Amino acid sequence: MSEYNRTPLPPGIRPSVEYIYRDEHGAMHSKVSRYDLGNGEKTFRQWHWEEHDRAEPGWEIGKGDKPRIPYNLDRIVAARQSEDLYICEGEKDADTLSALGFLATTNPGGAENWDPDLNKWFKKRHRIFIQEDNDAAGRMFSRDVALNVSPHAIAVRIVPYPDVKEKGDVTDWFAEGHTKEEFIARCEAAPVFKPPIVIPGLINARDLFGKEFEPVKYIVPGLITEGLTLFAGAPKIGKSWLWLQVGLAVAGGGVTFVNKECQQGDVLYLALEDNQRRLNSRMKKLWDMASQPVPDRLHLATDWPRQDMGGVDRIRDWLTNNPNARLVIVDVLARFKPTTRDKTQGPYDADYAAMNALQSLALEKGVGIVVIHHTRKSLGAGGDYFDEVSGTLALSGGADSTIVLKREAGGVRLMGRGRDLEDFDYAVKLDGLTCQWSILGDTDEVRLSRERTQVLVALKKAEAPLSNKELALACGRKPGGLDKLLFTMAEDGLVVRVERGKYALPDWRPEPKPL
């Protein structure tokens, strides 16, 4: 049953029954009309009693602006608080119990429409027995009512009727021949309802699934999200240049890495290994003053309290003073985290505590916080680059994202992974003149492109077919290291195989033999 639904009524149909709601003084308040449509179908209409806006008092369709009241309210108010009260899912069941001499009520609107405003009428009621219909809606209704009235009543019991037909109720149960005495015994046997203990922060899957959240906010599209990012790279690789470049781009609402357009916001850059002279020099290289002024939304500091000396609280104060902040950069972690750890903490716990304070602040304020750190010695071939982050695994574990800047024989890689970040692996380059970092493309594609170019240049210079070994030597590779590459290049039509396993450019033709 829906709340007085809007199912169209056939012409001339009249209500099969009407239920009158009276206020605490016994005056007309509202009524519910039931209409039987045939084949077991029914619909309901709600009316309210109107006296002030019409010449003569009477019924008007709809709920009106009156507060909802329970059915038989005048009887509830007149009864002693010690008298047992029976709450049903509908007026029909309440009338069934009233006819047997019980104090019974219900709410207007059916199973899904208990209004918390009704609870006030059940304060200090000694015992309440909720009559549960035999279906999912009935079970949900009885639990909802019990949760609402149990803080006000001394004892609440839910009385089920699993022995009646599906969707059956207490009226059906009495129709099967059960007696008043059996009813009382069933109610007395029902256990006292105990409200569940409320555990803060707990949510069930259905409620969580029904929530709508804003999309993840990117500080730098595809690279930096809100939350805590751990950024690691070898000393002198250009980490500070990179993050000063990003800070300027975010503060100015500009583009970084050639094609990453940043949404403008305030930026705090803690350059804890630098001084103002060095920052001044770097900004003059990174920023083109001829195009636009240096953004005043980039705030810099070369001295800042460590985490255990109020450093996190000072960042929070800055974020409070700058409500449009988007990014905080801590350069570097070693100058920010405590110099000594609590004697009760191991290295892992100390690293996790250092990250957790910043991660909680980032999520609380909805900003990105980037912590710059160092990598240790390379793990060699086959190792996970993210394991090269110096310190314990708690540093990466405590961050929402981890990014590693890594120099290899073929160039520099920028690799990232995170909870709300799609994995990326880019080939990047630091321009020696402008000191700007740029993304060249996916590392594998750039590397493959470079290797293919090396092979094509070697064949063009040779002006003759070359073997795998000869090509590997010309490209600075180990003998036999080009088998797979040459196979794919031949399939793509970039090279051709000639006699004795040699390769040549597609337009190569052997010189004609002399006659």
Describe the overall structure.
The protein has 515 residues and is α/β, with parallel strands linked by helices. The chain folds into three domains: 17-189, Dna Topoisomerase Vi A Subunit, Chain: A, domain 2 (3-Layer(aba) Sandwich); 218-430, P-loop containing nucleotide triphosphate hydrolases (Rossmann fold), CATH 3.40.50; 446-504, Winged helix-like DNA-binding domain superfamily/Winged helix DNA-binding domain (Arc Repressor Mutant, subunit A, Orthogonal Bundle). It is built from 14 helices and 23 strands. Strands 15-14-16-17-11-18-19-20-21 form a nine-stranded mixed sheet, sandwiched between helices. It has a four-stranded antiparallel sheet with strand order 1-2-3-4, with no helix packed on it. It is elongated, with a radius of gyration of 38 Å.
Q: Which tags fit this structure?
A:
14 helices; 23 strands; 515 residues; alpha/beta; Dna Topoisomerase Vi A Subunit, Chain: A, domain 2; Arc Repressor Mutant, subunit A; Rossmann fold; 28% helix; elongated; four-stranded antiparallel β-sheet
What is the element layout, followed by pairings?
Elements: E1 17-22, E2 28-38, E3 41-50, E4 58-61, H1 73-78, E5 85-87, H2 91-99, E6 103-105, E7 127-131, H3 136-149, E8 155-159, H4 170-175, H5 180-189, H6 205-209, E9 218-220, E10 224-225, E11 227-233, H7 239-252, E12 255-256, E13 260-261, E14 266-271, H8 276-286, E15 298-301, H9 311-321, E16 325-331, H10 347-365, E17 368-374, H11 394-397, E18 401-408, E19 411-418, E20 424-430, E21 437-442, H12 443-462, H13 468-474, H14 483-491, E22 496-498, E23 502-504
Parallel strand pairs: 5-6, 5-7, 7-8, 11-17, 11-18, 14-15, 14-16, 16-17
Antiparallel strand pairs: 1-2, 2-3, 3-4, 9-10, 12-13, 18-19, 19-20, 20-21, 22-23
